[in-house]
Amino acid sequence: MLQYLLNGIATGALYSVIALGIVLVYRTSRLLNFAHGDLAMVAVFLVWSFSRPLGFPGAVAVALLAATALGAAFSFGVLQQVKEATLLGQVVLTLGFSQVLSGAALVVWGADSKPFPFPLSSVVTYRLGGAVISQLTLGSLVIALVLMAGLYLLIQQTRVGLAMRAYSQDPEAARLLGLPTRRLLAFTWGVAALLGTAAGMLLAPVTFLHPYFMLTPFLKGFTAAVLGGLDSVPGAIVGGLLLGVMESLFAGYVSLRFVSTLSFALIVVMLLVRPEGLLGRVFQRRV
């Protein structure tokens, strides 16, 4: 039991990081970014490409900067320029961006799976009570927790975070107050891309690297965001951890074969029972 819980928490923490990027974009733009996973995938490929000439830390720095810049550029240079586009049209744009990224990855890096040169080992293990955890899993959990704490401090303790919260509550009022809303949106997309890339780097050593390796993690992150509430940052964390633990227990006590269907079942149940999510807000139309 303890082993399943530990595995679930570690995996769920990565789902939470992915969900946080989805929620950040939804809170400010009111749209689902379907390019979230593919943007992270391209950035992780950059780590793979530059790790030999620059070393792993240098490659990580390049990839994080590139992901942040690419996410911000897509928001500022594409979405914000199509002012007449409907919300559905903007979602379609993110789908198109996703296809461009995956197609470019296929052309540049090919379809073959590649090992990811992560410095932490999945072979070295530590014993915690009656459970065993690998160095890679423990390191991933710690990094995920640091990212969550860092995002909390950014949102709650900085002026930029205050502006992000103000815009998510009332975009029109934020514009009237003179907040730089266009730059704020671009910044939010950049932070979301950085979070997705960080999660991708922690997942790549296990899944191996190929142009579609972030598809399933993106779907799990989306499920976590729906569970917790698409407008709730704490909900993204709770949803990811809950999903990770439920998957681990389901795989251990029910069936490993059908664990991938659990996410879709949870989405359907949550949308039927509580569409706003566990910690999401209920929006009421003003008359």
- Structural class, from secondary structure content? mainly alpha
Helix proportion: over 70%
Strand content: under 5%
The radius of gyration over CA amounts to 19 Å
Describe the structure.
By secondary structure, this protein is mainly alpha-helical. It is 73% helix and 3% strand. The protein is built from ten helices and two strands, in the order H-H-H-E-E-H-H-H-H-H-H-H. Helix 4 crosses helix 5, helix 4 runs antiparallel to helix 7 and helix 8 packs parallel to helix 10. The relative contact order is 0.20.
Q: Quick gist of this model?
A:
It contains ten helices and two strands. The chain has 287 residues and is mainly α.
Q: Can you tag this structure with a few keywords?
A:
2 strands, 10 helices, 287 residues, mainly alpha, two-stranded antiparallel ribbon, 3% strand
Task: Lay out the secondary structure.
Elements: H1 2-29, H2 36-77, H3 87-109, E1 125-128, E2 131-134, H4 135-157, H5 159-169, H6 171-176, H7 181-207, H8 215-228, H9 233-253, H10 260-273
Antiparallel strand pairs: 1-2
Helix pairs in contact: 1-4, 1-7, 1-8, 1-9, 2-3, 2-7, 4-5, 4-7, 5-7, 8-9, 8-10
